[in-house]
Target: NAD(P)/FAD-dependent oxidoreductase
Amino acid sequence: MSRPETAARAAGAGHDDWDVIVIGAGAAGLMCAITAGARGRRALVIDHANKVGKKILMSGGGRCNFTNTGTTPAQYLSANPHFCKSALARYTPADFIALVDSHGIAWHEKELGQLFCDGSSKQIVRMLLDEAEAVEVQVRTHCSVGDIRRLEQGGFVLATTSGRLACESLVIATGGLSIPSMGASGFGYELARRFGHEVLPTRAGLVPLTLSGKHLERINDLSGVALDISAHCKGVAFRNRMLITHRGLSGPAILQISSYWRPGDELRLDLLPGEDALAWLQRQQHERGAAELKTVLSEHLPRRLAQRLCEVWLESRPMRQYTPAQLHDIATVLSAWPVVASGTEGWRTAEVTLGGVDTRGISSKTMMSNTVPGLFFIGEVVDVTGWLGGYNFQWAWASGHAAGSVA
Model:
């Protein structure tokens, strides 16, 4: 008698019994089920939502930034930065690109190794569903999970809105707390705790920063202004675009640094990235002594921002009138513009969840619980969070593949 049969019979007749049940029909969950199905395992994916792959569908402006060719463990945040190494090494961006290519999906590199579909993110979801069908994986939406029991002889029994289900291996791929409007919840963390796992504190990642009081008043009427910057916090820096909003700051550079920033941390922005600000000012003084600072800055920064800098942080006058010490002070403001953020936009707009199921309780090779045989955690629910730019999808593919190879 197989284990799933044992589980089904132990809990009573009339069960759906499976080798593997995956809770969560997102990127990680579908990849896990496909990998398990390819091994001949009878796999079922269930999700409480009305459709699969909601985050896939919305990502990359609807074109899905499905991986990053520059993926290494260095682009991930975790209490254990070594945890992600094994899975990432065994399922690489090249592996997923080969899968995309095999389905004839055209793609392009936008910047910094970020790969997007030429067409629509729907192509990635369709590819995953086609792959699932090819290995006889079943997918059920509108299926919510209530009680889960682990049987003494092994396996699990689930009470769901689609009836009672039984399985040998149970995979938690429920995602994190980001974007609750798409159905995100803390269900995966509740399950982890229920089975004795530690869950590290969670917070919003890859999220816009908010300003308040005088800090917001100084720039909120500049909403819509965008520019290339380098954002610096706690020894980490990201160069990319920044967008000023009516509530604070957004754009790729800000989203990236937000995963490192905590309330109270010093945040500084280099408004002339790639330039030695002091040397640049000295050249301007030598070559254009009669030009005012605000005029010179307006030629290199958005005009409205340049004028505001000169109204609040700098005194604008002809370049020839500045002393060397004053030029140095101006350079400091331009290369390390201080920003006092009050918080973030929170889960509503966060792209990912920082923190999650403690990796100390999980095998880095298989994603299986160290204390509950047959229980697996993959994707965003785990304390592994990537940078912006396709890294979180690559973690989903890699962790899902790792679990699916043994579940």
